[in-house]
User: Fold Coproporphyrinogen III oxidase from Candidatus Chlorohelix allophototropha.
Amino acid sequence: MKVAIIGGGMAGLSATYYLQQLGQGAIDYVLIESSSQFGGKVSTIRESNFVVEGGPDSFHALKTAAVDLCRALNLDEELIGTNTEARKVFVWSRGKLRRMPEGVMLIIPTKITPFLKSGLISWPGKLRMGLDLFIPRRKDDSDVSLADFVRRRLGKEALDRIAGPMVAGIYVADADHMSLKSTFPRFLEMEKKYGSLLRGIITQKLETARSKKKEKDSLNTPGKAPNSNFLTLRGGLQRLPEALVEKLNPRSLLLNRKVETIRREGTTYDLTLDDGSHIKADAVVFATPTYVTSDIVKGLDSKLSEKLKTIRYVSTATVSLGYRRREVEHSLSGFGFVVPRSEKRKIIACAWSSTKFNWRAPEGYVLVRAFVGGASAEELAEQDEASLLQMVREEMRDSLGINATPILNKVFRWRKGNPQYDVGHEERVAEIDRLTTQHEGLYMAGAAFRGVGVPDCIADGKRVAQLIAEKAKTLVK
Ligand SMILES: Cc1cc2nc3c(=O)[nH]c(=O)nc-3n(C[C@H](O)[C@H](O)[C@H](O)COP(=O)(O)OP(=O)(O)OC[C@H]3O[C@@H](n4cnc5c(N)ncnc54)[C@H](O)[C@@H]3O)c2cc1C
Assistant:
């Protein structure tokens, strides 16, 4: 069975790797990538002993697909966690950086004392959040936006100063459009089960405390990943696609080739590439952004093509700046800060990369990384590099008091790089799935569907590989 995988980001690479593992020689594959390297958004620059991430800087450890893959690729020794002693996040609010109360879990405080002491939320705002204990749960299961949910349960201030900037920093999304069901189903379940987020958190904390000892014991087991919720690799996250490529058959990997169209020819598919060449395959995996897939499948199925277009993408950019430590007065003691939209600043977040992880800057230097654009300020991310750099340097001056000239700067622009999980996302994906399965041998995977995180994309690639491997087995029989 011949399989063509289109798009060599994490989803496409994962699909290819697991196809090779599961196919046991029964599957012949080709992976086609339009750019000059594999990895897609996972892109690291190593220069002058700085390790600069252009896209993701880490992945969630509790979603195990990425850790499992690292282990399978013998990357265990290279896994590093965040520097737990510096686990502080700040909010650039009303002119200065204010500490996010310790223990805030995306939208809800999990520790009472630091929350009560924090100046980030006013006293009326804190009281309003406390009303969550008494507000009745919703009666129906329909999807809602994160903003509607947080406003109703915890109030406007919690949305503006905690939940809004946190999701803008992580999902580069607008809380007013973001589907709660597809991004934080856990909070919907918590409301349903406990009738209140705060009550849910308290109950879950008690349960966690009980299992803590068990967890502590397991930390000392050799070969375990570091004890951190977020992990990366010492030489940068791009080590992961690099290690994957090393395991694949080099003759089956095509770089700098763009797939333009797909046609059905009897029981096979015929792909046309931008150099005029053709590839024939029994099965095709699309691991491309959905607007790209939409163009490719237009001639095959106009309905599917239209549906794929309904997933919205926004543009973002990251600007990394390296400084001499002695030229930066700020302690940079923390993971960085997020910026509420109401502040009308030009960045949405800033990671203090060399504090968050070791091995990111050489001795005597620091590295910070600003995020620009996202749902509410796409045009800022689409500026030319020089303007982006100038803008971010001004923001670093106003937020961190850094006037020094950076000794290193790296700009990554991700035009239409971030899929948005708008309210109703689940139904949109179900309809795309339904239309796709009408074409035997056609599959789709990637950030647009079942999770944007690196582990989600790896899991989605693996899911598709399993489906194809099952199919291949039945054909052999
Ligand atoms: C700035 C930024 C920060 C992020 N931070 C994190 C983070 O910290 N943690 C985390 O877990 N996630 C993070 N993410 C999300 C995560 O990186 C992505 O969701 C994930 O890497 C996407 O993988 P993918 O394979 O679905 O798509 P992509 O990586 O976009 O891969 C798609 C590939 O398809 C190729 N392609 C496009 N058109 C064609 C064509 N016609 N023919 C052939 N190939 C084609 C592209 O060149 C690309 O390589 C971040 C994303 C961004 C942009």
In short: Residues 19 and 465 are 5 Å apart (CA to CA). The chain has 17 helices and 22 strands.
